[in-house]
Amino acid sequence: xxxxxxxxxxxxxxxxxxxxxxxxxxxxxxxxxxxxxxxxxxxxxxxxxxxxxxxxxxxxxxxxxxxxxxxxxxxxxxxxxxxxxxxxxxxxxxxxxxxxxxxxxxxxxxxxxxxxxxxxxxxxxxxxxxxxxxxxxxxxxxxxxxxxxxxxxxxxxxxxxxxxxxxxxxxxxxxxx
Length: 177
Hints:
Blueprint: E1 3-8, E2 14-19, H1 25-34, H2 37-44, H3 53-64, E3 71-79, E4 85-94, E5 102-109, H4 118-132, E6 137-143, H5 147-155, E7 162-166, E8 169-175
Helix pairs in contact: 1-3
């Protein structure tokens, strides 16, 4: 596991940032289980109450086994008093080909760590790695009702930000220079 440093949240909690690795599937499944229904819906754009444990594990395995030429994923983790590691946030991007300069981005933060600056920090750290790989723009589909994420994006004051809303979803395209 490659550590990328630490981050102190607005509430004073210390979070470790690191790249996701294939061994993280159990931590990702646990992370998903700890997200509220609303956070799951806003992130994945679907109702998640009837997803089987088998599907959650399959997705966790896929999301932890990355092609480093196409994908980067950063986990924000904490250690519980019993030294059990838990993921409290994830930021990732994926691009279609190794030469693509545009990548789709996603960020999700566990509910008890939301509104503490972690999502913004993860996104900025992810952008650093994207630039190193030649990515110039992030894109994302966001539910139009996801007020917190839209507020975060506005707060970044990105010049050249493009937004288009259709059928309750907003497509965002942002330069990351």
